[in-house]
Specification:
Elements (H helix, E strand, L loop, with lengths): L14 E6 L5 E7 L2 H6 L10 H9 L2 E6 L3 H15 L6 E2 L7 E4 L8 E4 L8 E3 L5 H14 L7 H10 L4 H4 L13 H15 L3 H17 L3 H20 L9 E9 L3 E10 L2 E11 L6 H15 L7 E4 L6 H12 L4 E4 L3 H27 L1 H15 L7 E10 L2 E11 L2 E2 L5 E4 L7 H20 L15 E5 L2 H13 L7 E5 L5 E3 L7 E2 L5 H35 L6 H11 L2 H6 L2 H6 L5 H15 L9
Parallel strand pairs: 8-11, 11-12, 13-17, 17-18
Antiparallel strand pairs: 1-2, 1-3, 4-10, 5-6, 5-7, 8-9, 9-10, 13-14, 14-15, 14-16, 18-19, 19-20
Helix pairs in contact: 4-9, 7-8, 8-9, 12-16, 13-16, 14-15
Length: 626
């Protein structure tokens, strides 16, 4: 057990402190404005400390510290020590995704721009990260058409320089030929700066500058030079058109969203430069420490800017208030070398961008949990854990989950999603059109289960073509709902004689309660347990699958009803129009003259058709140019 150090011996200065176990290993690293005040807060009555802090202190045998000159230095020292020692009681990044970035090798005599992943190197400028390697490659390819920096390796550059002959890229205009002295160092460095300027979010300024040079060359009758500037401008404009302008052109900010549970938090950032989203980035963090939401957000943001950030914005837009906002602003300002402001996105475009970042965080959190469950050992442990907690006869190697979806009793549909060996098996998913005429989830669930299980029995008896089979018998059927849905499942299994061969459970949305046959009270699985992760994944996927199918059915129904209301548009004309255009929405995009030109409908019918479609889809034609 750790002994309290003499308070007078602890310096009243900024710094980092390290708790160590009996073998001298660092188990926790912290930072403080005042080491004396912060360390004193650990040596109080154990009942007043959080559970994880008590657990850490129970293992700790000693504490050491290092003083520094400022908060910023304390933060960087803490981060360095965490990276070196990997202390078990510190929150830590668990994001194993290597985002693609564009790097400009300013440390070389003739810099090049290239797509990279992984750790950063000194004296190399990085831009991004990008959502996908495809997006990064497309951006880089279009940009190098306008500003053709070399793309070859250092060895290839040296070989062509020695031979005095350029490669094919020079001959097709994709490189300016530094290997043969076709460009001066000054001209090449200017191109490098222009590439960096564009990737840094100043594409509009670059395009304006090239346009001015193009006009100047044309005015001086230098038409070949003007044509080269024109081609550069077209390539740069093409990239800019792929970057959505989301706020005013002078906006320079990082917008954050997060999704968290008791064990982990997913943080996602939208990087907005010069009003355009130029990249995204994210982290998943283990929440080992006991922190409030405000403290957690502050801690995760510190980790993000220490490890994942490639530059610092003028403004950080947050999804919720954080602890000690002024200190974080001061820290980021010191790291950036200029003022950085932090604030919650409460209205307008910042609020909308926070919502987008939050949805990205939710999606990434869901993918992260699925990836974690994809590991074989983790999946095996999760299935064993599920069998133990639900008291199943065996580990459920095949689980089928069912959900219903409807809108006020219309377009009733059901969904079945399948998990085998702990992984979703998409090819075995099934949709069901339900014939229930009114809002009755129990009757709809009964119909779907009867159809699926009756088909299973028929396949087992050889009465159906096995090439279109539902596949294997499930070990466990999971129903989205509560005790009512469970009762339906019990009745169907009993009537079909399957109660002894198929286990049954239902998962209620409220409190994540699991209902099982023969249990009077629902089970509540521990938050963070692998068993609950499996059930949540199945339930969420079945809901998504049902909602998607329901929306598609509803859209088809709505479109069919729209066409049915047009006088003079009978079944044959409807079929011909849909065959010609592909969908009702595509018909709505056509002009009256285009519809008449198909010779499928007369002008009068085309007029009424477009009037009706405008009510459904709004104005579809482009505004006239003035």
């Amino acid at each position: 057990m750790i002994e309290r150090p003499n308070k007078a011996s602890i310096p009243d200065q900024p710094g980092s402190y390290q708790f160590r176990d009996a073998e001298g290993r660092v188990i926790y690293v912290g930072k403080a404005k005042s080491l004396r005040n912060r360390l004193s807060s650990y040596f109080v009555s154990p009942e007043t400390l959080a559970g994880k802090t008590r657990a850490m202190l129970a293992v700790a045998e000693s504490v050491t510290w290092i003083t520094v000159a400022s908060d910023a230095e304390a933060f960087m020292l803490e981060y360095s020590l965490i990276k070196e020692h990997h202390p078990r009681y510190n929150i830590r990044l668990r994001d194993d995704k290597s985002y693609p970035m564009i790097a400009v090798t300013t440390n070389e005599e003739w810099p090049r721009a290239m797509l990279v992943r992984g750790a950063r190197r000194s004296k190399v400028r990085y831009f991004g990260p990008y959502v996908s390697s495809g997006a990064a490659r497309e951006t880089l390819d279009l940009l190098l058409r306008a500003l053709p920096l070399r793309s070859c390796s250092a060895a290839k550059l040296a070989r062509h320089t020695r031979d005095g002959r350029p490669c094919l890229y020079y001959h097709i205009g994709r490189c300016v030929g530094p290997c043969i002295g076709a460009v001066t160092q000054a001209e090449y460095r200017e191109m490098v700066e222009r590439v960096s300027q564009f990737l840094g979010g100043q594409g509009t300024e670059l395009a304006n500058g090239i346009e001015a040079k193009m006009r100047q060359a044309a005015k001086a009758l230098e038409f070949e030079q003007a044509a080269r500037y024109r081609d550069q401008l077209e390539a740069i404009t093409s990239v800019l058109e792929r970057q959505e302008m989301v706020v005013s052109s002078d906006a320079d900010m990082d917008v954050f969203g997060f999704s968290a549970d008791e064990l982990e938090v997913s943080l996602q950032a939208l990087r907005v430069r010069a009003g355009r989203v130029v990249g995204t980035n994210g982290v998943v963090v283990d929440l080992v420490e006991d922190l409030t939401q405000e403290e957690m957000l502050t801690r995760v943001l510190e980790l993000y800017y220490a490890e994942k950030a490639f530059d610092y914005p003028s403004r950080v837009v947050l999804p919720a208030p954080i602890a000690d906002q002024e200190r974080l602003e001061q820290l980021l300002s010191e790291l950036a070398g200029r003022r950085v402001q932090c604030g919650v996105g409460q209205r307008g475009r910042p609020r909308a961008l926070v919502a987008t970042a939050t949805e990205n965080a939710r999606q990434e959190f869901r993918r992260h949990r699925t990836r974690r469950a994809s590991d074989h050992n983790a999946r095996a442990e999760a299935l064993v854990d599920l069998a133990r907690r639900l008291n199943l006869r065996e580990s459920p190697l095949r689980i089928e989950c069912y959900d219903m979806s409807h809108l006020q009793g219309t377009n009733y549909v059901g969904s079945m999603v399948v998990m085998e060996d702990g992984l979703m098996k998409h090819r075995d998913y099934r949709h069901f059109g339900v014939s229930i005429p009114k809002n009755d989830d129990f009757a709809a669930m009964e119909e779907v289960l009867r159809r699926r299980l009756s088909r299973l029995l028929a396949e087992q008896q050889g009465d159906l073509d096995r090439s279109r089979r539902f596949a294997y018998r499930p070990n466990l059927i999971l129903l989205d709902g509560g005790a009512g849905q469970l009762s339906v499942g019990i009745r169907v299994l009993a009537e079909l004689g399957l109660s002894s061969s198929i286990e049954l459970a239902s998962l209620a949305k409220s409190f994540e309660e699991v209902y099982r046959p023969q249990l009077s009270e629902p089970l509540r699985l521990p938050r963070g347990s692998q068993a609950l992760y499996l059930l949540q994944t199945l339930r969420d996927e079945s809901h998504r699958f049902a909602i998607t199918y329901h929306r598609r059915r509803r859209t088809i129904t709505a479109e069919q009803s729209v066409l049915d209301q047009i006088p003079g548009l009978g079944p044959k004309r409807r079929s011909k129009l849909l065959a010609h255009y592909g969908s009702v929405f595509e018909i709505a995009q056509a002009s009256q003259d285009e519809l008449v030109a198909t010779k499928i409908v007369p002008r009068a019918v085309a007029t009424q058709l477009l009037e009706q479609l405008t009510k459904v889809y709004g104005t579809t034609s482009s505004p006239s140019e003035e």
